[in-house]
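Subgroup meeting minutes
Present: P.N., E.W., G.H.
Scribe: E.W.

1. P.N. recapped why we're keeping a running log of single-chain structure predictions: easier to compare across weeks, and new members can see raw inputs and outputs side by side.
2. G.H. added today's entry (340 aa).
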Amino acid sequence: MTNRFPSRRAFTSLALAVALASAAFGAAAQKPVELLNVSYDPTRELYVEFNAAFIKHWKAKTGQDVVIKQSHGGSGKQARGIIDGLEADVATLALAGDTDALHANGGWIPKDWQKRLPHNASPYTSTIVLVVRQGNPKGIKDWDDLVKPGVAVITPNPKTSGGARWNYLAAWEFAKRKFGNEAKAKDFIAKLYANVPVLDTGARGSSITFAQRGQGDVFISWENEAFLLEKEFGNKVDVIYPSLSILAEPAVTVVDKNVDKKGTRAVATAYLEYLYTDEGQDIAGKNFYRPISEKFQAKYVKQLPKIKLFTIDEAFGGWAKAAKDHFADGASFDQIYLKK
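Output recorded in log:
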């Protein structure tokens, strides 16, 4: 009679094969994954803290280790870096216009990338404020004080820095509302940039120029960068809120071509989604970014007061139009600055 059951030896071999396969699968599942977050200048401190929180969260949830590397620079320059081959898994740039360039120049992301995450893929917002020397010796209270003779203004180059573009547009809209038309706004901006002694490529460079090198009387700054300076330099600087500023909405996205090539889409997506959780929103507030969560807006309202803000869409018709009118080659910034 033929034995229809496998021998003990066959059973042992089969069990060993299953065990080896399971071990191999487990090792593959737990293999550490590496992400590169390509961001703009002033987010270094934010993402140091956020990365540590996400690494802990992901390990507890999946058992997998994550290594997250950061790259920082002027937002426009960072976008060009990704287009030229910098293998970012996520881009967390200063403005949607720079992120749109990733679609327009090589299809790194889809055209509708802002629909993939809440709040148009902006998990936190910011605004533009003025930083002055202790005691405000030049008596700077609002944008129109920046065009006075003898006031040296520090701001980065809007051709390379997203923050600089927010600065420029905030000042432009203030002048347009105060003086009544675009021509007078352009004249105001020309006077402002006549008071700018140096254009750094990014916001952090301008921060160093103002705070560490001691240049300038006033620094046009991201709100979070202003408070970091106040925290670091104590009573050497004061933060001034102008009467009107712009709602800055830094945007985030997975870089599709890169995550699909590297096999990191799941972790990169979870990383960005974690910015919207309570822990992510709390970390944003602690680092002087404005949370989109009402719960954490209320928690940080004393630190980040409500002020009069306008949006890029209502004042300039969106980033595409603003970039064409003001920052493209030969547009208003070039017309103003090349005359210096």
